Amino acid sequence: MSYHSPTSVDQAVELLASRDDARPMSGGTDLLVQMRSGRLKPGAIVDIKGIDRAVGSRAQDGGFVIGAATPCTELLDDAALCAAWPGVVEAANLIGSVQVRNRATIGGNLCNASPAADSVPALIAAGARAVVAGPQGERIVAVEDLLAGPGWTTLGKGEFVLEFILPVREPGSADAYLRSIPRTEMDIAVVGAGINLSCDASGTITAARVALGAVAPTALLVPDAGAALIGSKLDEAALTAMGEAAKAACRPIDDKRGTIDYRIAMSAVYARRAAVIAYNRSRETL
Amino acid sequence: MSKQHIRATVNGDAVDFLCEPTTSLLNALRDELRLTGSKEGCGSGDCGACSVMLDDKLVCSCLVLAPEIDGRRVETIEGLAQDGQLHPLQRKFLEHGALQCGFCTPGVLVAAKALLERNVDPTEEETRYWLAGNLCRCTGYDKIIRAVLDTAAELRQERLPA
Lengths: 286, 162
Prior knowledge:
The complex is a heterodimer.
Chain A: E1 2-4, H1 9-18, E2 22-25, H2 31-36, E3 44-47, E4 57-60, E5 63-67, H3 72-75, H4 79-84, H5 86-92, H6 98-101, H7 106-112, H8 119-126, E6 129-134, E7 137-142, E8 147-149, E9 152-153, E10 160-166, E11 173-180, E12 191-199, E13 205-213, E14 220-221, H9 223-229, H10 236-249, H11 260-284
Parallel strand pairs in A: 1-3, 2-3
Antiparallel strand pairs in A: 4-5, 5-10, 6-7, 6-10, 8-9, 11-12, 12-13, 13-14
Chain B: E1 4-10, E2 13-19, H1 25-32, E3 51-54, E4 57-60, E5 73-75, H2 88-96, H3 105-118, H4 124-130, H5 142-159
Parallel strand pairs in B: 1-5
Antiparallel strand pairs in B: 1-2, 3-4, 3-5
Helix pairs in contact in B: 2-5
């Protein structure tokens, strides 16, 4: 195996396209574990942390751009990002331990494609788009469209996720992410719920996106759940309707962390709790 | 497979060594540099026994490739004591008996030092969350937490004007 640390997007694409068993690496917290277990045997590792655009966060066109290889803990240092997208930042900072979050990245969390990835439902709820670099140049893809199944993305040969684009924030908008885990720290989501919503000056919700993790082969955008909130002031009827829509979208598995029935029931509970947090946050921005 | 030549600063000393590209930082520290204080518990980033500082960031050295440290700064447990003087954390761990088998202790100490450098007055809850990535199968954590909080109290005292 060879290790490469390109400093330009073009170099990285060339290296990744040059052989079938080349793998991009950002934090390496999933990749190196899978290599050690023998599940992956890459012939070449292409470390993208040396590419300027792949690291750091910055305001751009009224929204934000986050380099795909930015460590999760570094997002906490961007006060404007934390104020605009608290749900995305908190989701990224629920992953693993401090040691892991100092290396792990949202780009890696997405591309590792675990159904239980914490940052992915938050990114989907946020309407985040990924800038994908590849042999044909760059393309911009909705995060939910990059997910194919457990461990699989829709990235083509030679492609890697370079940046994420978070949309322009209007006043009255906020997001939140919550997950259910059996322990208080260092565990993998049994259910994750990301909510992003906007409300007008009267507190009526004008837009909402609901995304769920760990309840299907990929993180899910649940349009019916978001629609159930629109036009409401987050009253009981709207929350109940959203919860029912969330449960209807779940296609989970039984495993040691939770049963199918438990995951489905908890999807409504965590979506409700996250919606309340997002709603209260959105009111504070008015 | 060709070996890579790595130059870095470890505990303030310039080092250079050859390694396979797949070598973890942990194995490079232990096998090439003979710094065996950092331990491998799990090899998957769960236990924290291999915790080191990489450019002032707390990381699991088992989840870093050795070639990644080229040109960078690493601090390990071997750099904690200075000029034969134990670090206050090391002293407090002895006072409180905050270790039994000792396998997790180097990682816990490196992680606790990183916490106190950021925040010299952490709450017990903050301390427990910060150290959640360091597993100890002997002590039940209570003495570890007490030793860290007691060290913090001592460090705050030292900072008071005379």
